[in-house]
Amino acid sequence: MSTIERNVFISYCHADAGWLDRVKVHLRPLARRTALDIWEDSRISPGQEWREEIAKALARARVAILIVSADFLASEFVVSNELPPLLHRAAQGGLLVLPLIVSPCLFSEDPELSRYQCVNSPDKPLAGMSRTEAETVLVSLGRSIDDYFRLLATSPPSGTADIAAASPRPKAPSNTQASPESQYGPLVVERPINLGFDGSAPGGMPIGWFNSFGHVSGVSTDYRIRVARRSRDGTAGTCAVLEKATAASGDFGSLMQRCQGRFLAGRTVRLQGELRTDSVSGWAGLWLRADAADEPNLFFDNMAGRPVRGTTDWTRYFIDAPLPANTDWLNYGLVLSGAGALYADDIRLLVWTSQGGWEDV
């Protein structure tokens, strides 16, 4: 297991100091238990050069929480002094940016910040929630940050895994090793791996996969993810399970993988997999999204128009995607909306060849 410095940078406006306090309260147990280091500007001592201190804190950080409000977006100090080096650090790689929307604001209209997936939906700021609902979001934030650092710590060491290139135009992949960090968040793989879920699963999470936190807006991290036997007699190998016993309206969970896609730009790909459901109250399915380095959602399909509902036996499903010429990243996985259990196995990412057939990426 590699040693990871658990440094978290918090950017906020002083008008939102109350929310800062609540975030720190929820992170404090992690600070005691896992040596999580939480930095915000109150740690700048009188006489210290604040630009230098912010730069040092950002250089150490693996996670940046943005406490976003109308005051935050209006703050000249934040916009001119904190955000530019923070976003530059994110662009260089290794910094997961997590906007937390605490009050109604024009976050979605900001061309730079809106590229980052929020902890909660911009349409559901914490200030509009009940205290219990808001505290639940903060619990999920803390739990997800802890899970993220666990993923980094259990990723293969540098001798067996290459860090994803910081270049927005990555080269075609040359191997299948997992990469624990990139400017785009928790986990990037050079090309699809562990699609049959037969590899190891530290803490229940299949190697090469993660819970979509930081990449899918509004996703709940309270869904359980595990690897289980596909059949009760144990003869058919293992599969991934995404499940939740009870779910509030609008809750959904996701298990995803993210790989470099530039070498597939302009071609047609197919995401294929076998799914089984048990008592799904909402719907379930596969999902596939193509992103450019500077523009998300070039293509998106989550089977919402042909959902899997209720209880179903193993069935093969697929999504075909003609990838735009500016595709840089492919995101794909499973989605479960509502309560129930989704089982998945034999996921494949295929590309249509000039010979007129599908082949594995």
Kindly report the oligomeric state of this protein.
single chain
Estimated share of beta-strand residues: 25-35%
CATH architecture of the largest domain: Sandwich
Distance between the termini: 29 Å
Counted beta strands? 15
Please count the helical segments: 5
CATH topology of the largest domain: Jelly Rolls
Q: Topology as H/E string?
A: EHEHEHHEHEEEEEEEEEEE
List low-pLDDT spans.
155-186
Report the top-level CATH class of the largest domain.
Answer: Mainly Beta
Mean pLDDT: 82
The structural class is: alpha+beta
Instruction: Give helix % range.
Output: 10-25%
Task: Note the overall shape.
Answer: globular
Question: Whole-number radius of gyration?
Answer: 20 Å
**CATH level-four homologous superfamily name of the largest domain:** Galactose-binding domain-like
Indicate how many domains the architecture comprises: 2
Q: Mind describing the biggest β-sheet? A: 9 strands, antiparallel
What does this protein look like?
The chain has 361 residues and is an alpha+beta fold. The protein has two domains: 7-152, 3-Layer(aba) Sandwich (Rossmann fold); 173-360, Sandwich (Jelly Rolls). 21% of the residues lie in helices and 33% in strands. It has helices at residues 17-34, 50-60, 70-74, 76-92, 131-154, and strands at residues 7-11, 37-39, 63-68, 96-101, 178-179, 188-189, 224-229, 238-244, 252-260, 268-292, 295-301, 308-322, 329-337, 340-352, 358-360. Strands 7, 8, 9, 10, 11, 12, 13, 14 and 15 form a nine-stranded antiparallel sheet that branches. Helix 2 packs parallel to helix 4. The longest helix is centred in the middle third of the chain and has 24 residues, at 131-154. The chain is globular, with a radius of gyration of 20 Å. Mean pLDDT is 82; it is low at 155-186.
